[in-house]
Write a structure and sequence with these properties.
By secondary structure, this protein is an all-alpha fold. It is built from three helices and no strands. The protein is elongated and about 60 Å long.
Length: about 110
């Protein structure tokens, strides 16, 4: 696994996560302008920040260790688990909000 590539990807996710925490992130139109949208964006931003941070640290670990590619990939998957866990938590917490927004969006499309 290329360490510079891993760091580049992790920096992208860290910056995108910081933008999400600050409330600047691209989301689907049907989720915009709702009372819960800022919370939804911040939760997404936190998940991206976790992913990028874990992969950034993984880059240092892989640089220090000499491992076969399969083990590096396994460590990559393991280091993504905190972000996946938080993403599942955020998905579960926002599911009702998104379902309601989807229903409103469908109704609005049928009226037009």
């Amino acid at each position: 696994m290329s360490i510079p590539f891993l760091w580049g990807i992790s920096v992208f996710w860290i910056v995108y996560g910081i933008l999400g925490i600050l409330g600047i992130q691209k989301i689907p139109e049907k989720y915009k302008y709702k009372s819960w949208t800022p919370d939804y964006i911040r939760m997404n931003g936190m998940a991206y920040l976790l992913l990028g941070g874990c992969w950034f640290i993984l880059g240092f670990a892989l640089r220090a260790l000499s491992l076969p590619l399969l083990q590096e990939l396994g460590l990559g998957l393991l280091s993504a688990l905190p972000a996946v866990g938080y993403g599942l938590y955020a998905d579960r917490k926002t599911k009702a909000w998104r379902r309601q927004a989807n229903e409103e969006w469908q109704r609005k499309k049928q009226v037009k």
